[in-house]
Amino acid sequence: MKFKVVTLGCKVNTYESVFMKEKLIEAGYLEGEPADIIIINTCSVTNMADNKSKKVIRHEKRNNPEAIIVVCGCSAENNREKLSDLGINILIGNKDKNKIVALIKEYLDNKKDIVRFYDMRKLEFEDMCIHKFEEQTRGYIKIQDGCCNYCSYCIIPYLRGNIRSKDKELVLKEATDLVNSGHKELVLTGIDTGSYGKDKGYNLTSLLKDLSLIKGLERLRLSSVEITQLTSEFLDLLKDDKVLCNHLHIPLQAGSDKILKLMNRKYDLKYFFAKIEEIRRIRPDISITTDVIVGFPGETDTDFLTTLDTCQKLKFSKIHVFPYSKRDGTKASTFPNQVDNRVKKERARSLIELSKKQELEYNKLFLNKVVRVLIEEVTDNCSVGHTSNYLKVSIPKKLQRNEIYNVVINDVKSDICYGLLEGDNLDK
Question: In this structure, are 161 and 225 located in the same domain?
Fold first, then answer.
């Protein structure tokens, strides 16, 4: 039987989808179309994401009327009743994805629809391990699930449940397997990655130290981490550990103390600035990227100008800009003074322009310098990859995918750098 997996949403969903693919292939299923089994891993981060998830389910059902339809993920968790009339054969939320083979077998044996949901606040970590990412050079490891931050705009803590962590030994084994299968860079991901280990008497920094000792691992990257989770212990490691990537993605979300408080974020601007300054004392050329929401309820023109000024001063190397999207079921959806969509778009445009300018300024720091590039995409006359600090670099030469080369940067744009190869690959 053939299957396909449709993935919507975040890196955690992507990881879980790759795991389900791997398990199905191990069980003898083939990935391909026309598919006999269609798995849709849904997203519910915004109302629009819910609508897209529902649209994809209907599309797949209409185009593949004989296929077994499996729906899982956050939108399934959030809208189980609303999805009940869409002809879904297996409907689960954010638990039992690791039982995908058994669920499909149960359905094939009994021909009865399966619907399974649990109390998301009372779950253990659902173990999943991937041995190789066939379609990408980076290997991802999901080390954590759930969130207890309850930011006023976010529905995810209700859909992903309590914070829970993968056992340290399982993480180390998965990382070792991925490195042995050829991955030189690993990315740690989760719903609230920085909270890793809180439920196990362990912590993220201790895990990073252990992972950095794996022979053959050249780069270790965090997908995202909160500013409040960058402890003095973490910063000491950042100072000394050369395997840790020279890049941190730290969500700011708003550059105004008033809006941060409304968002129920756990810091103020004074704290954020001090921590960023401390990081840059340790690694002066580190890339710090961020997320910012514009048009949050109650955000005035003055508040937005304060956010612009804050972002200018913090000199992020890239700002991911999100116009606020009302999310039913969150506290912020009930707030007065919702911002007009036209105003949100204008503010987003202004912040994106600032991001492009700051990205170009950061890239220029590396003009005429030698950087190490992990090659990810190759054509007959061009190779593209990323540096440790996440510069995207294009080289006009066919190189070996998944190898690291020394490259001299000779031209920069806001979204890409160009370079020429310097010597042979150091790893050869």
Answer: yes
